[in-house]
Amino acid sequence: MEINYIGESLAFGKYGNAFVALAFTSALVFSISYLMSLKGDKSWKKIGRVSFIIHALSVFGVIGLLLYLINGHFFEYYYVWFHSSLEMPARYIFSCFWEGQEGSFLLWSFWHVILCSFIILKSRKWEAPVLSVMGMIQVFLSSMILGIYVFGEKIGSNPFILLREHPDMLNLPFTQSANYLEGLNGRGLNPLLQNYWMIIHPPVLFLGFASTAIPFAFVLGGLFTNKVTEWVKPALPYAFFGVMILGTGILMGGAWAYEALSFGGFWAWDPVENASLVPLITFIGAAHVLLIFKRTGRTLITALILTVITFVLILYSTFLTRSGILGDTSVHAFTDLGMSGHLLIYMLFFTVLPAIFIFLRWNSIPKDRSEDKISSREFWMFIGVLTLIISALQITFVTSIPVWNKLFGLDLAPPADVIDHYNSWQIPIAIIVCLLIGLTQFLKYKSTNSDYVKKHVWISLLLSIVISGLSFIWLDFDRIQYYILMFASVYAIVGNLDYFIRIIKAKVNYSGASVAHMGVGFI
Q: Is position 487 within any domain?
């Protein structure tokens, strides 16, 4: 017998589903249109731009409608019921929105739209190549919230599904009542997430995630158009912007963990925390080799590979977090919503596609024909990048133990003392990086006179020895490596402060690297 439910606002769900469908189809259209425009037909570019605008409005429409439903306590919708409640303070409305997988995918998609808009406004020459790739990315992200079945396989999870139609709620007694909404309250936001950090941390972190896509899109756009070197200059600012934002997002997460204490302090080497840290490490490496190429015309292949790997690692971290494969090894992981296969396809597609085009353009990509001079800045920068790659590989291997077990039928166990295990690897790496940070600023590209180095390095080195030596009086470390790390950190700070004051004379336009490097030393 059909039940005539009382008080349900079904129209909002229909509007929401229409926005979702429009976001998906318009992303597909603007990707194809921009791709076709690379052949020189300007009409395709116009279609692409109009389709992008429709896509942007659709994404904003989905987000705005879902926020309206959460704020209005429309508990007939499962997402609203699951993530909010009547007692929820208004300041956590946004937290409720991005607590769930669907909301976080929408947040990610939102930032892509914003960044694409900057490309259209500021990089018109690269609009078509970059947005053709970003369209592909948006197609996959939009599909994550479709919630439809194709040949029996579920594609995405619909944020506008009704409470009574959700698989977990079907045929429950209370959903069989026509007036089930009367007196119904939502499940509410997880108490651990009722924190001001939940309001500001996810948007910054997801902006960081989204920013890795832009240099990736420049790489593919450059390969599509056979402009294998020209993409570097316009991509470089986006790379360093992304490093800054992603790093800030991770630091905010660490501060939140330190306040909450339930996550093991500032950094507990949790698998989900590691999954976001590794792309940051490779992103830092990618940005620096891009800078090397801009200044010297070298290391382009490394720049290509690291830029691609960074974006793929973001997708891999999404897979680890949302597939349920981490199980109980992480306090941050989502439960599996049946998206594992979907996420794997997403990751494999954006791994194989650039690999194919790198292979096809291999002969056009400039190769390094000689060795860097050991006295050059780029030599030691590259050593630093290699050190970061070792760091990323070690973290990835151990974090992925559940994946290795599932793939190869193994029974590997995570380290008994996770913090001690990671620290035993990462502290020596941090020492090397900090020492390089303190030194390389004083070196010049291509070659540096040894007298110049001696003249400018000894002051910061001497000050670092004195400052760290005095600090040892009050410090009581149980391992010698902590004292060495303390010295290296001080040297990173003092060396860059010295460079900032004496060499570039505190000029703001040239101070970015020094300030960022000092920040690393403080961390």
A: yes
